[in-house]
């Protein structure tokens, strides 16, 4: 008899708790229960700036080694806003045939902090690259500092990338600099993207 009472009491607690948890959430959580833990955020001024990058582009990539002449290559890039205008996705292609390489960039902006965060992956290696703003967006250029995760952060080389939009939106210039221990910058790579004539110009 005692065992039956204990089991009955246990059942009331368990199923009573489940019944209580099945009640629909109140207010806005009823429509979007995930918002209680991950509040929604809307695009901000950073996304408006990124929208100007949308389109098809011809690319000239210049690598500056420590010694010797710069090495140049050409390619193409298609940039689109994804996830309801929250992120800019960039699809790069360089070379042809066996020498062909591809790369994918993704960058977003957090209105709350005024910072951009980007990621990069390509067909040359399995490592992912991450960058983030060190200061708030000034409305004119994107300045990103290289970031590393975990133990790799201890030995990561310091770098900074500056992106500007020039010639009334017809040209995008990325310049990546390595930064030594004394804070001196050295230009490592430059990407110049020129909007293709057949690419529709995004709304300002």
From TrEMBL:
<protein>
    <submittedName>
        <fullName>DUF1579 family protein</fullName>
    </submittedName>
</protein>
<dbReference type="Pfam" id="PF07617">
    <property type="entry name" value="DUF1579"/>
</dbReference>
<feature type="compositionally biased region" description="Basic and acidic residues">
    <location>
        <begin position="26"/>
        <end position="45"/>
    </location>
</feature>
<dbReference type="InterPro" id="IPR011473">
    <property type="entry name" value="DUF1579"/>
</dbReference>
<feature type="region of interest" description="Disordered">
    <location>
        <begin position="21"/>
        <end position="45"/>
    </location>
</feature>
<keyword id="KW-0732">Signal</keyword>
<feature type="signal peptide">
    <location>
        <begin position="1"/>
        <end position="19"/>
    </location>
</feature>
